[in-house]
Amino acid sequence: AKAPTPTPFFLTGGQYDPLILPAWTETTAGWLRDKGYENLTFRTYSMEHAVCLEEIQDLSVWLATTVRGE
Predict the structure, then answer these.
(1) Which long-range contacts (CB under 8 A, 24 or more apart) does 5-10 make?
(2) pLDDT of 26-61, one tens digit each?
(3) CA-to-CA distance for 27 and 61, rounded, in angstroms?
(4) pTM (2 decimals)?
């Protein structure tokens, strides 16, 4: 693993996504961690290839705390 990288990431996926398979998002999360991106928030949601209210709420909180520092 490389030295920790402070760049924050918010990565999400749908548990039933037929376009971007859940295994691919899990692999991406692992790859980012292996490259030193420790400031990674990774969540999955019970949906296909879509956006859900819970995801928008989680992103809103993440933006407020991670980017704006609230």
Answers:
(1) 5/35, 5/36, 5/37, 5/38, 5/39, 6/39, 7/37, 7/39, 8/39, 8/40, 8/41, 8/66, 8/67, 9/37, 9/39, 9/40, 9/41, 9/42, 10/41, 10/58, 10/59, 10/62, 10/63, 10/66
(2) 999 999 999 999 999 999 999 999 999 999 999 999
(3) 25
(4) 0.87
